[in-house]
Amino acid sequence: MRSVLMALLVLLPATPALAERSYSSEKGVTHDCAKEPEIIINNAGGSYTFTGACTKLTVNGSDNRIKAESVVRILCNGAKNAIEVDAVDKAAVNGNDNTLTYKRGINGKPKVTAIGANNKLNQVK
Questions:
Q1: 53-97 confidence digits (pLDDT tens)
Q2: What's the chain's Rg over C-alpha atoms?
């Protein structure tokens, strides 16, 4: 029985892992989320454009300008970032002096929270 189980495990296709892309030094980037849906920005003073549907965007840097079509979950820990997204499901802005501008939710009304000081959450049409 054990050898049959081992043979079946070998025949099963491997499950692809979600690709994660980290930016630490790049200043101007256009990124396709269809290829790498999870992004981490550990940089300051950059300009980033994300096309397609992103699953997760984490911003730890500061003074970044970010535009995205769609992000399921945004986590902003940095300071003085400006994030513009067409569609978002959940967003937590924990840093200070950040601005998150969004148009709509992905699955109904988005859940957005601001914990840090002087953060601005703006829904626009």
A1: 999 999 999 999 999 999 999 999 999 999 999 999 999 999 999
A2: 18
**At 3, which helix (H) or strand (E)?**
helix 2-11
Cα separation, 114 vs 49, whole angstroms = 23
Q: What angle do CA 80, 50, 67 make, to 5 degrees?
A: 40
Phi-psi label, residue 80: left if phi above 0, alpha if psi -120 to 50, beta otherwise: left
In 3-state terms, what secondary structure has residue 19?
A: coil
Q: pTM, whole model, 2 decimals?
A: 0.84
Closest CA to 121 of 99, 89, 97, 95: 99
| pLDDT value at residue 20 | 87
